Amino acid sequence: MFIPCNEANHVCDKTQYKESTLWEKIKLNLHLIYCKACRKYTKSNSKLTHSIKVSNVECMDKKCKEAMKKNFEKALKDQINQ
Fold first, then answer.
1. Per residue in 22-45, pLDDT tens?
2. Any residues with CB less than 8 A from the CB of 20 and at least 6 apart, and which?
3. CA 46 to CA 67: how far, in whole Å?
């Protein structure tokens, strides 16, 4: 029934992405009752998840990434050839 800290942290990560089972959540919560370090990890994980959800981060599309990569490689090549 009791799980080690590394497994608790793994279950915490799975819970963050809604991939953990009910049984895993129960074992995690039992572990968190007696483990201060894992409670801190879980709290930090929750803050990170919340921050990402409320942020307005926009990702570049594939075309922009490829263009940036080509420009970078060209600039690097030009710098090396100087």
1. 999 999 999 999 999 999 999 999
2. 11, 14, 28
3. 35
**Could you say which residues of the chain have pLDDT below 50?**
none
3-class SS of residue 58: coil
Q: Nearest CA to 32 among 41, 20, 22, 44?
A: 41
Contact 38, 11 (CB under 8 A): no
Nearest to 20 by CA among 10, 30, 32: 10
- Angle between helix axes 5-16 and 36-54 (nearest 10 degrees) is 20
DSSP summary character for residue 19:
-
- Report the pLDDT value the prediction gives residue 35, as an integer from 0 to 100: 96
